[in-house]
Amino acid sequence: MVRVIRSRHQGAEPIECTVLTNGTLVENADLEFLAEHDVNLRVSFDGVAPAQARRASGTYRTVVNVLARAIRRQPGWARNRLSVAMIAQGATVPTFARSIAKSMTMGLAEVRVGPLMNHDLEWGESTRRQFEEQIEQVVIASWRCWKRTGQVPVDFLRPDPPASLRRGASVGGALCGACSRDSVAVDPDGRGWGCPSFMTSIQSL
How far is the C-alpha of 189 from the C-alpha of 141, rounded, in Å? Predict the structure, then answer.
């Protein structure tokens, strides 16, 4: 699919291709293919073991091993193309800063943070205050990372967001680019959608 997309592209700007996955089935051959074709890999990973267990029980060690393998086997590619997507939710607020720190110390290109898509029953006023304290810790850790490496992996603290984020925010000032022509999410069944959240492969209808 990557070869087909790029062979038919006639524009001046390169096409960015990103694979979104929970990481549990990524093999070494997959990493080699993605690195060879300069494709982004974004792995769903919520950080420390208790937080990751809320996403999918028993997957913490598997996902950490995949990320470590990717960095070890393809270090140049991983520095620019490997990222994680983390969900901020009420149940994981107490470990949020530790989860961010865990991802940053692994040497990932980017740590993207988003909200829980459905209603969060565990979010309240006390949770909000606790989350603000966690954010302060994340800011401090990010500042130390910047002093040490010159990089800020956490997406909402980066002074110059990646082009993919800027494109998503350019549609009438909206943060969501689902209605934009700039990107398309391709389901494993081959159908295209404006957003990965709409894909039939991850829906229970």
Answer: 41
Residues 20-71: pLDDT tens digits?
999 999 999 999 999 988 899 999 999 999 999 998 999 999 999 999 999 9
Polymer length in residues for the chain: 205
Amino acid, res. 4? V
User: What is d(CA 27, CA 34) in angstroms, rounded to the nearest whole number?
Assistant: 11
Tokens of 51: 């937080």
Please enumerate in sequence order all residues whose Cβ is within 8 A of that of 3, keeping only pairs 6 or more positions apart, or say none.
37
Q: What is the pTM of this model?
A: 0.81
Report the SS3 class of residue 171: strand
Taking the C-alpha atoms of residue 162 and residue 109, their distance in angstroms, rounded to an integer, is 11
How far is it, in rounded angstroms, from Cα 154 to Cα 83?
Answer: 10
Query: Can you tell me the distance from the alpha carbon of 86 to that of 116, in angstroms, rounded to the nearest whole number?
Result: 10
SS3 of residue 113 by DSSP: strand
Q: How far apart are CA 94 and CA 97, in angstroms?
A: 8
Tell how far CA 25 is from the center of its chain: 17
3-state secondary structure 24-54: CCCCHHHHHHHHHCCCEEEEECCCCHHHHHH
Beta-ladder partners of 114: 87
Cβ atoms within 10 Å of 134's Cβ, excluding its own: 20
